[in-house]
TrEMBL record:
Region of interest called Disordered, as start-end residue ranges on this chain: 51-87
Highest classification ranks of the organism: Eukaryota, Fungi, Dikarya, Ascomycota, Pezizomycotina
Protein name (database record): Exosome complex subunit Csl4
Keywords: Cytoplasm, Exosome
Entry keyword Translocase: no
């Protein structure tokens, strides 16, 4: 079974392919016919030898069904490729281009009004939420791993006000049902704020939680626009979930 992977991490919620051309594997789930990453990791594409195996297993009444679609998976750290040396074919094109185009760079990209950002929630209060900005202007095929960033005190700080969380029923918002400490959220910068904080908004379907951990400490995947589900226990928790990009 041929295998190929990339050196760039993907994050939960990132679209990796379509069910019409690929088969979802471990570390992924299907959302609206798209295969979406469920965990942080490096995507791997396996060219499945299913044509022969599946055909033999499903042959009935002189007919057979088979599929030779490649399998997209996001293995847990340390299991990518299952010992198979990656080849340069059948890769998912992802690259880190923060601060420039066509390659990785260490240039710091400053947030500005209109920038899309990935933030980590650091504090939830009744009227506002505090967060650290981890990545500025990510795109579906252009994401830098925020797992290398661990010290929130060294990052740009941001504030998400209650009225900027969503566009509807703002008076009925329960802050802890929207976001919790540790959540990774896609948001947009709406104001440069003061000398300490940027102001961000998650009012829009494309904004919200992209990575979350359940109360039990397990990874979660989107169940709907307002719920995420523990992949181990199946328990649902309230969140404002970002639409997969």
């Amino acid at each position: 079974m041929a295998s190929a992977s990339t050196s760039t991490f993907v994050v939960p919620g990132q679209v990796l392919g379509n069910t019409s051309s690929h088969v979802p594997g471990p570390g992924t789930h299907v959302y609206e016919n798209n295969i979406v990453a469920s965990i942080i990791g490096r995507p791997v594409v396996l060219s499945s030898p299913a044509a022969a195996d599946t055909s033999a297993k499903t042959k009935t009444n002189n007919t057979s069904t088979s599929t030779n679609k490649p399998i997209i998976s996001v293995p847990h750290s340390g299991t990518a490729g299952e010992g198979v040396t990656p080849t340069p074919t059948n890769t998912i094109t992802t690259s880190s281009t923060i601060g420039g185009s066509g390659g990785s760079t260490n240039t710091t990209l400053l947030p500005k009004v209109g920038s899309t950002v990935l933030v980590r929630i650091t504090r939830v209060q009744q009227r506002q939420i505090s967060a650290s900005i981890l990545v500025v202007d990510p795109s579906p095929n252009d994401i830098t791993s925020y797992t290398r960033v661990t010290d929130d005190d060294l990052q740009f700080q941001a504030v998400l006000r209650r009225e900027d969380i969503r566009t509807h029923e703002k008076d009925k918002i329960v802050m802890n049902d929207m976001y919790r400490v540790g959540d990774i959220v896609r948001a947009m910068v709406i104001s440069l704020g003061d000398e300490r904080n940027y102001y961000i908004s998650t009012a829009g379907n494309e904004f919200g939680v992209v990575v979350a951990t359940s109360d039990a400490g397990n990874a979660m995947v989107p169940a709907s626009w307002r719920e995420m589900r523990d992949v181990v226990t199946g328990q649902a928790e309230s969140r404002k979930v970002a639409k997969p990009s």
